[in-house]
Amino acid sequence: MHWTLVIPLKPLALAKSRLSQAADDAVRPALALAFAQDTVAAALACAQVRDVAVVTDDVLAGRELSALGARIVPDAPAAGLNAALTHGARTVRSARPGSAVAALNADLPALRPRELARVLTDAAAFPRAFLADAAGVGTTLLSAAPGHALLPAFGPDSRARHRASGAVELDLDAVDSVRQDVDTGDDLRAALALGVGPHTARQAARLLRQ
Ligand SMILES: Nc1nc2c(ncn2[C@@H]2O[C@H](COP(=O)(O)OP(=O)(O)OP(=O)(O)O)[C@@H](O)[C@H]2O)c(=O)[nH]1
Ligand SMILES: C=C(OP(=O)(O)O)C(=O)O
What we know:
With 210 residues, the chain is α/β, with parallel strands linked by helices. It has helices at 28-44, 59-68, 81-95, 113-123, 158-164, 176-179, 185-194, 198-209, and strands spanning 3-8, 49-55, 71-73, 100-104, 128-132, 139-144, 168-169. The chain is built from eight helices and seven strands. Strands 3-2-1-4-6-5-7 form a seven-stranded mixed sheet, with helices on both faces. Helix 1 runs parallel beside helix 2 and helix 1 (28-44) packs antiparallel against helix 8. The N and C termini lie far apart (45 Å). It binds guanosine-5'-triphosphate and phosphoenolpyruvate. Residues 81, 133, 138-139, 154-155, 158, 181, 183 line the site of phosphoenolpyruvate.
């Protein structure tokens, strides 16, 4: 099965507010963009991924991510993360109704294409499936096979909410790069230890020089 990934991204000036202790206002937007660039580049390099749609209203991010090969979908509902994902999945399926779609967070700077391929291969066995984040409370990926609505419930305690919604939790070892989202300075250190993509590596080096 080949997947279309739907990746949501807040306007960069507002993104990653919980990183404010580790990265000040002058650096954080560039860091958030770098996370998204490394996430999108790794996703597009994954053999199971047909294409990537990024739902964002950010002009700079739209330009940079479309240069990597992503399609940009405006965040028309402007009603938060889950509305953006529902809109993104609908937009994808209005062009190709039988698409397998998966929502993936834009803050996975250590994402490895082979680990993403393992997650998507397992997800293909279920109508809806999800992967818990490294902290064990959130979600980094939610999938919907052809013919099934995504029904995203991202946000606080999304692991429990996705489970309660009937999505199957994927029980996989050795997919740390798909689980490691970056919300805090500790998360950033964990991602750097796994090995981040080139955009984040450049921005992290800038941060260390400050
Ligand atoms: N398009 C869109 N994406 C969103 C919205 N809210 C969150 N996201 C994205 O959803 C993903 C998961 O969100 P979070 O991990 O909470 O990221 P964040 O909102 O930048 O982080 P904080 O500001 O610290 O809460 C990230 O890729 C965000 O950019 C939204 O309203 N619209
Ligand atoms: C939106 C989510 O991410 P975070 O916990 O990183 O805000 C989530 O896990 O559902």
